[in-house]
TrEMBL record:
Pfam families in UniProt: B3_4 (PF03483)
One GO molecular-function entry: ligase activity
Organism of provenance: Achromobacter spanius
Record lineage: Bacteria, Pseudomonadati, Pseudomonadota, Betaproteobacteria, Burkholderiales
PANTHER family recorded: CYTOPLASMIC PROTEIN, PTHR39209
Keywords: Ligase
Domain of life: Bacteria
Protein's name in the database: Phenylalanine--tRNA ligase beta subunit-related protein
tRNA processing in keyword set: no
Amino acid sequence: MIAQFSYERRLVDDYPNLRCMVAFIGGISIDADFDDIVRANLDQARGMLTQYESESRIPSIQQWRQAYRRNGTDPTKFRMAAESILRRLRTSDAFTSELHPFVVLCNSLSAMHALPVAALDADCIDGNLKVGYASGHTHYLGFDGETIVVPKGEITFEDDAGQAHARRWSHRQSAFSSISERTQRALVIAEALHDSAELDLGRLLDNLTDAVASRWPSGTVSGRLLSQQDLVAGCRSPFLARLVSYPDMEVMK
């Protein structure tokens, strides 16, 4: 199970505008219906696309494109996750809903806020999870079943067991920690680089908290916004609170 989430100092120094929302979700089950919330979120996403005419003109996505280029990744070949969702929504009004309901919810929040939102099974993460430059020794499991070693220097999410839980930072998650019908605890990570990042991430956390409370009355959301040195210091998992008391997480229901 995940013990702590943090960022590599070098990555934070390289991207000083980086902000993160991290949330630990407990009490997840497969029997939830977020359809009405998802529809409302997608309606807002469509309105944003109408306003900007193209997802590539949205300020948050423009900043991610710049970050990708800086790291040597072509953002038109490997799109940030939220950009991919919005592009499909704009070109064909398509949105994948044949997934775990919590994943569908997170994807709709990603579209509405034009921010990458990763939902990981917390029990599939070993110890510390750190976002940073790949060591060149971690393994990534794709949804096609293929396992690769993430190239050294690529930005990824690495845990203590040598598993990489993302490719190209916010492009694609690993199948190893994907949300499934067995998932009971999740780690949700949303990141932003644009000027109003903290405000938008705070709204996303509010939306996520309200949605969980409305469908899982016994569910819990422990969420926090991270910036600058907080990203490096990170936050410890409240799932371990039975053994140790961690006062650094704001707990909401």
